[in-house]
Amino acid sequence: MFNNKQIFILTVLILLVASLSFNTGITGEVTKDVKTVISIEPKRINAGDAITINVKPGERGVNKYVTFYRVSEGGKSSLRKAVSIKVCVIDYRCYKPISLNYPTSTNWPAGTYYAQVFDYASSGYVKDYFVVDELRFNTQNKQY
After folding, report:
1. 76/86: higher pLDDT
2. Residue 49 pLDDT
3. Domain segments of the chain: what residues?
4. Rounded distance, CA 9 to CA 106, Å?
5. How much is the average pLDDT of 5-26?
6. Domain 37-133 belongs in CATH node 2.60.40.1930
7. Burial 39-59 (b: 16+ CB within 10 A, else e)
8. C-alpha to C-alpha distances, 108 to 9, 58, 112, 133, nearest whole angstrom
9. For residue 12, what is the enclosing H or E element?
10. Is the four-CA dihedral 27, 32, 34, 37 of positive or negative sign?
11. Could you tell me what percent of the chain has a pLDDT over 90?
């Protein structure tokens, strides 16, 4: 039915298609870019509490600004809530992991928020969500 030459050519074509579909190089290593990861702790705070933002840039880096948004009722749109903070100071693109401590505003209403940073590997924003509860007055610590 098939001769050895036809089987060899068919096998090479199958391997070529498989290699391209799995996005591997000649060495067999995956060539996909590592994407950025952003994480926020804690996930639930009172208005005015600080959050810790950890940004681990992907191979192509991130934009130097992290921005904050509040998810609107129904979750269909978002409202920018805070001035952007810089992940790195010197360059416009950041490549090294960083951890930032960010105090939220006591004026932020209760709701779901997220911080986002632009990832150059995916050409899109990477987000992590957190919840802000309304400001609670604490007379023991005199926090208002």
Report:
1. 86
2. 95
3. 1-31, 37-133
4. 69
5. 57
6. yes
7. ebeeeebbbbbebebebbbbe
8. 65, 31, 10, 9
9. helix 4-21
10. negative
11. 47
